[in-house]
Structure formats: structure tokens, C-alpha cells
Design a protein that fits this description.
By secondary structure, the chain is mainly β. The protein has no helices and 11 strands. Strand 7 and strand 8 form a beta hairpin.
Length: 119
């Protein structure tokens, strides 16, 4: 069974940085896509960034391009989200998700970690 455990959220001032971590376990992830989503109160869940584990290709949501970076560490099966130049509108619960690359839906989710950016 795949397990995803996020960490690294917290309170930061606008303009600051945070790095989220997602520790993955349960199988080999070479054929998986990993992603970070976020959901703010009263808003729909939003895709933030995604990465192919095998080739390392990445995509980003328009709201975070140039500020956030998704990366992975093969040795520890950990996916990171480096968030720089944070804005109050980045405040949300951030979720790590994973899917086999041949399916469309993300079927593995972490528990979420709160990120709060103060102005």
C-alpha cells in the first residue's frame, strides 16, 4: 500500500520561503507521477506542481511558476516543494499526491500540511 506523509508546513511572512516534504513508501515509484495540490478555505483544490519520477519532467500551475520548485530524492523516496517569495494567497492546506503514470486520477494522497502566509 502506498503511503504519503507530508511535513514542513507552518507560518511564514510574505516574501519568505518554506520547503514541504512528502515521504513516499510502499512500492517502487519509477512509473509514478507525483504532484502537490493545495486547497484554501472556500476554494476548489488547485494543482500546484507535478513531476514524473522516472524522467524528472515538471509542470507548474500559473500561480506559482517561477516561485515554487518540485524535486525528488531517489534515495529517500521523498518529493519536495520549495516555495519562495510566498504570498498571502498561497495560504492553504498542501497535499502530496501520486498516481501510476498510465492512469489519469491521483489515487494516493497524503494527509495535508497547513501553510499560512501572513501579510
Amino acid at each position: 500500500q502506498v503511503q504519503l506523509v507530508e511535513s514542513g508546513g507552518g507560518l511564514v511572512q510574505a516574501g519568505g520561503s518554506l520547503r514541504l516534504s512528502c515521504a513516499a513508501s510502499g512500492r517502487t515509484f519509477s512509473s509514478y507521477i507525483f504532484a502537490w495540490f493545495r486547497q484554501a478555505p472556500g476554494k476548489e483544490r488547485e494543482s500546484v506542481a507535478a513531476m514524473s519520477w522516472s524522467i524528472g519532467s515538471t509542470t507548474y500551475g500559473d500561480a506559482v511558476k517561477g516561485r515554487f520548485t518540485i524535486s525528488r530524492d531517489n534515495a529517500s523516496n521523498t518529493v519536495y516543494l520549495q516555495m519562495n517569495s510566498l504570498k498571502p494567497e498561497d495560504t492553504a492546506v498542501y497535499y502530496c499526491a501520486a498516481r501510476w503514470k498510465f492512469v489519469q486520477s491521483y489515487n494516493y494522497w497524503g494527509q495535508g500540511t497547513q501553510v499560512t502566509v501572513s501579510s
